[in-house]
Design brief:
heterodimer; A: 160 residues; alpha+beta; Ubiquitin-like (UB roll); DNA polymerase, domain 1; 2 domains; 5-stranded mixed β-sheet; 5 helices; 33% helix; B: 786 residues; 6-stranded mixed β-sheet
């Protein structure tokens, strides 16, 4: 059996780029992304899988990177908030967040953006779909209404 | 006595008032924000704390050898090690009847609450540091935990032997003939309220990085603090780091809400460890620690009574506010500020109540220290005042709007019994505005129709006045000491661009954007040419903290005063170049123009270039310094006001309460940026809904905190957040920059009362009246079944 502090090899694609690293078996995916790959846009808010701040997309599905081990991501494709911008401009979802003042401190924002990205990629979410999906994320600043508005407008932009 | 730094020049609002998008957003939305945990110093070590598992116990032994022997562990310190450098940090509130406590950096001999730090393990990685903590063995001999604040104040064992009678604070005042007013009252309405124990719950937990260079004795301390200058002061005063070689740095911060406006033992320990170990040391708090130890908030028992005359006008108030303070005073706010403010500041609110009997007290208990959280003292005070007002409305059979109109202050300036002067306000208009927003007669019809179907909806109202722009004058008005001012630096460079530094740190409030709007209007330069830096380092400016709804007012005043110095030079230069009188020059849209002379103008860019490179354009005696640092502290206290009305639905089958809609009225004088003001309202109100319906830190009978994850401590999520309708009233202050008033705390101050009133309105046909928050389903069902 693999011991928690034993080194294991992990090969992943993150934001379109391949990485191979040797990491402790017990290292979380969140720590791997942040500390090993220096992609610090993914935030750790609770380490209990509750707040949603650390959400990334693993093979296009939202996942709490604090509850996943790096080794579990072996061979998989990951996207983080750093993948969202279109070259040197924000993507429509990010633009809608700015327009609707859907972030204040910004600490929870990457998680919301990643879950919303998956939701938009799935199809045409209704306002109810947005609320149901994003209720798995905490934001302590905005009171949420602007986040709903931002995702709703981004969905409408995708339709048009 | 008047001071120059209390004068604020006038300003023409152009950018002020506009919904300017935040300049910070693209950085934060693309993952480029740099928060404390994102900073990595070469060679950094990681600290992790061993925390007390007992509420109250004697420490018989702390066994650290196994931890020290673990591969990768660099150091383990206990209370004795820390005490060699610092006995602890002293907390007290500078009011009558407060007894100070000293909080050790690591507990020695006795632990006094669950989560109190007992030892710290420093290791090569966070993972190993946590392993090391698991190997530290603490032998506790249990002492009786003190958990009930009201019985603690009557005697029994002491929670903290520095306070043998458990009285950390006790005082009050009787203002006027309260006895006679109550004796002659047509009706007395009274109740006891309990507002629950809360966590501010910022999404980013606390964290500290310390780096010390022995060659220069230079300490750099990164901490996500709302009061970095105060932290720096403590580093010099308690630990002896030289002031000139001590820098506190504040990176992007994931919310604070008052929790990060304290100084903590961890902030004092990390610099010592970095100095002694000669390596940078980092500590990032985990969520369990945050819920256990990063100060709790707001818990109070409040007895309040109003006397009313036959016309339902309030004639007297009597209040006793009792804080459940925890084991120590957390500096600087202490366990005292919560009940002190509730009793001494809030009981009259917007009402013309001439006499008052005010008592405050705080009990030491074996719980986490109480600290500041958005609207400290004001939330519980507003809860009891506004909910008692609704109790009175039911007693007099008046609408919640009408009962408030009977007592509301209508003439300004108004002086309350405590002697606090309110210069202006839209207190009556707020009540009228909310009444029309909710369409009160239509609501009552809908309520009756739904009741017939077995559905319970209710309307709750809460109006507030909030001290804002925390200042020296505000302190004096409330019989508090303290000098508060901030500085700002405004610097214009040769291409006419402007760099601004302010003394405030920012936790998401958009100060960089709102301050750029102020500068844009003061100097006539476009927003794109302005960069605002918050207090990212104590090297720049001076700040008294991002607290007390002071950001817009205080930073705005300092920025405006500094801008005005630059403006005066640009105007003098333009007048010389355009051969006009300086009093005829306006700075607008990137140019200096001569009023009434079309075509006579020079661009700000050309003016700035001339200051640096063209002496021939200068007037006589011109000083080319295009950089100014000035302080601001308003001459008088400033109060914003407003109110919320909420409609809730209570499910009688399961006891759950949901908020259907929030109506908010805010009057913070001149609004710099409506998006940001509305964001503060929505965020604060939803925190208030959490406080009223969901959030509760719970201790068991042994003093164990049982709510240590975000699954147990339940904050509002999106499916719980209501839609808002927000109206702005604008009653500008006569003496702040542009008439701005602060408003960052108002949402949380007033929302819980509106929720509780709405719940009681929903239950009004049952005769049930609840006075405790949070209103949990259990509480509702218990009441419905009894």
């Amino acid at each position: 059996m693999t011991q928690p502090s034993e080194q294991v090899s992990v090969e992943v694609e993150v934001n379109g780029r391949g990485y191979r690293r040797s990491v402790m078996a017990r290292m979380t995916l969140a720590d791997f992304i942040r500390d090993e790959l220096a992609l610090t846009g993914t935030k750790v808010g609770c380490e209990h899988g509750v707040c949603g701040a650390c959400t990334v997309l693993v093979d296009d599905e939202p996942a709490r990177s604090c509850l996943m081990l790096a080794v579990q991501a072996d061979g998989r494709r990951i996207r983080t908030v750093e993948s969202l911008a279109n070259g040197r401009s924000m993507n429509p979802l990010q633009e809608c967040f700015q327009k609707h003042h859907a972030l204040q401190c910004g600490f929870c924002t990457a998680g919301f953006l990643m879950s919303a990205t998956a939701l938009l990629e799935e199809g045409q979410p209704t306002r109810e779909d947005i609320v149901e999906t994003l209720s798995g994320h905490y934001c302590r600043c905005t009171g949420y209404a602007p986040i709903i508005d931002a995702v709703e407008e981004a969905a409408a932009k995708e339709r048009s | 006595m008047s001071f120059a730094h209390s004068e604020s020049p006038s300003i023409a609002a152009r950018s002020i008032g506009a919904r300017v998008p935040r300049g910070d957003d693209p950085r934060l939305l693309t993952g480029r924000g740099q928060y404390l945990a994102d900073i990595v110093l070469p060679g950094e070590l990681h600290a992790c704390f061993v925390r007390s598992s007992a509420a109250h116990a004697r420490i018989a032994a702390v066994e650290v050898e196994d931890a020290r022997a673990l591969d990768g562990v660099v150091a383990v310190w206990t209370g004795e090690d820390a005490a060699k450098f610092c006995e602890g940090i002293v907390g007290e509130l500078e009011v009558e009847g407060c007894v100070a406590t000293t909080m050790p950096l690591l507990a020695r001999d006795v632990v006094r609450y669950v989560g109190e730090p007992v030892a710290v393990v420093v290791a090569e990685s966070r993972y190993v540091a946590e392993d090391g903590c698991d190997l530290v063995d603490v032998d506790y001999e249990p002492l009786e935990p003190v958990l009930d604040p009201r019985s603690a104040l009557r005697g029994g064992p002491a929670a903290n032997e520095e306070l043998p009678d458990n009285v950390a604070l006790r005082g009050g005042r009787v203002l006027g003939d309260v006895e006679a007013a109550f004796a002659g009252a047509a009706r007395v309405v009274e109740a006891t309220f309990h507002s629950g124990r809360l966590s501010a719950g910022p999404m980013e937990t606390r964290g500290v990085i310390a780096d010390y260079d022995w060659t220069s004795r230079r300490l750099r301390l990164w901490t996500c603090s709302q009061m970095p200058h105060y932290v720096k002061y403590c580093l010099t005063a308690y630990l002896g780091f030289p002031e000139n070689e001590c820098e506190v740095l504040t990176p992007d911060t994931g919310g604070g809400f008052g929790q990060k406006a304290h100084v903590f033992p961890e902030e004092m320990l990390l610099p010592l460890l970095a100095r002694e170990l000669d390596r940078p040391v980092k500590w990032v708090e985990d969520r369990r620690e945050n819920l256990m130890t990063a100060t709790h908030a707001h818990e109070q028992f409040v007895d309040i009574a109003y006397a009313f005359d036959a016309d339902a006008k309030a004639t007297a108030v009597r209040i006793r506010a009792t804080g459940d303070g925890g084991a120590y005073h957390q500096p600087p706010w202490s366990m005292g500020v919560e009940p002190w403010c509730t009793a001494m500041v809030t009981p009259t609110g917007v009402y013309d109540i001439p006499v008052a009997d005010l008592t405050y007290e705080a009990a030491a208990t074996n719980k986490t220290p109480i600290g500041a959280y958005r609207g400290v003292g004001y939330m519980a005070g507003t809860l009891v005042r506004e909910c008692l007002m609704d109790d009175a409305a039911r007693a007099f059979d008046l609408s919640p709007f009408e009962i408030r109109r009977r007592s509301v202050v209508r003439e300004f300036p108004w002086t309350n019994p405590q002697g606090i002067v309110y210069d202006e306000g839209s207190w009556l208009q707020t009540i009228d505005e909310l009444e029309s927003m909710v369409d009160y007669p239509a609501f009552r019809q809908r309520q009756a129709a739904l009741r017939a179907e077995g559905r319970f909806i209710g309307l709750g109202l809460s109006v507030f006045v909030e001290s804002s722009g925390e200042s020296t004058a505000m302190g004096k008005a409330h019989d508090l000491g303290g000098v508060y001012h901030d500085t700002a630096t405004v610097k214009m460079e040769p291409n006419g661009s402007v760099t601004v530094t302010i003394g405030l740190t920012t936790q998401g409030q958009g100060h960089r954007t709102t301050m750029a709007q102020v500068v844009s209007d003061a100097l006539g330069v476009p927003l794109e040419a302005i960069t605002v830096r918050a207090a990212e380092s104590t090297t720049y400016g001076w700040g008294s903290g991002t607290v007390g709804s002071r950001g817009a007012v205080i930073a705005g005043g300092a920025v405006l005063r500094a801008s005005h110095t630059i403006r005066t030079k640009l105007v003098a230069l333009a007048a010389n170049m355009l051969e006009a009188d300086p009093s005829d020059i306006d700075l607008v849209d990137g140019a200096a123009v001569v009023r009434g002379v079309p075509g006579s103008s020079v661009s700000i860019i050309d003016l700035a270039t001339a200051v640096y490179f063209d002496q021939t354009s200068w007037p006589e005696d011109f000083d080319p310094t295009l950089e100014a640092t000035l302080a601001y502290d308003p001459a008088r206290p400033i109060f914003s006001n407003g109110g919320h009305a909420m409609i809730v639905e209570l499910d009688p089958d399961n006891g759950f309460v949901t908020v259907e809609k929030v109506f908010s009225v805010e009057d913070c004088g001149t609004v710099i940026n409506p998006d940001i003001v509305e964001g503060q309202i929505r965020g604060g109100v939803v925190q208030g809904i959490g406080a009223a319906l969901l959030e509760r830190l719970v201790y068991d009978d042994a003093g164990q905190l049982v709510t240590t994850t975000l699954l147990d401590y339940h904050m509002p999520s999106m499916d719980f957040s209501p839609p808002f309708e927000i109206h702005h009233l604008e009653t500008p202050s006569s003496h702040t920059p542009g008439g701005i008033k602060g408003m960052g705390e108002s949402g949380l101050i007033a929302a819980p009362a509106a929720v509780l009133n709405a719940v009681n309105d929903a239950l009004s046909h049952t005769g049930i009246v609840l006075h405790d928050i949070p209103v949990t389903p259990e509480q509702v069902l218990r009441a419905l079944r009894s």
